[in-house]
Amino acid sequence: MNGTVREWVEKAEGDLRTAQREFRALDRPNYDAVCFHAQQCVEKLMKALLMHHQITPPRTHDLERLFDLLKPVVPTFAPSVEDIRSLTTTGMAVRYPDESADQEDARQALEICERLRGELLGMLGEERE
Fold it and tell me: What does the pLDDT look like over 67-88, one tens digit per residue?
């Protein structure tokens, strides 16, 4: 794995740790942050996989767009479009006023993230902890 791909993976892992830590927080958990960092983890892993296949990823937070770029080079990656849309929508919407995540939103975002993370790391030849 080249250095840039490795950096994307490390940043993604940091986002996952942040999402998990915030979800477990006993004092005022920030469920918005869980959703945001869950989305960021998957986004960065998708970008790592694009880079792994010598495709420069666009500057976007849209997981559906990244998935469209991955389809031709990694046809075995077939996540649920609903999961991709949900993670994009929830992760980005909570960045603005009038949108907030609750515990269930955060739980779902984290579950989707962890599932997709496992698939993406597998395609990158990484072990999943």
Answer: 999 999 999 999 999 999 999 9
Q: Is residue 91 assigned to a domain?
A: yes
Task: Dig out the tokens for 84 from the structure.
Answer: 């991709």
Q: Decide: 1 and 26 in contact? Cβ < 8 Å.
A: no
Contact assessment for residue 45 and residue 10, using Cβ atoms and an 8 Å cutoff: no
The DSSP 8-state label assigned to residue 96 in this structure reads S
Name the domain count of the chain.
1
Percent residues over pLDDT 90 in the chain: 87
Report CA torsion sign: 17, 19, 22, 23: negative
Helix count and strand count (H, E) for the chain: 5, 0
Is the residue at 27 inside a domain?
yes
Which range of residues forms the domain containing residue 110?
3-123
> Hey, what are 75's tokens?
């046809």
Task: For residue range 23-71, list pLDDT tens digits in order.
Answer: 999 999 999 999 999 999 999 999 999 999 999 999 999 999 999 999 9
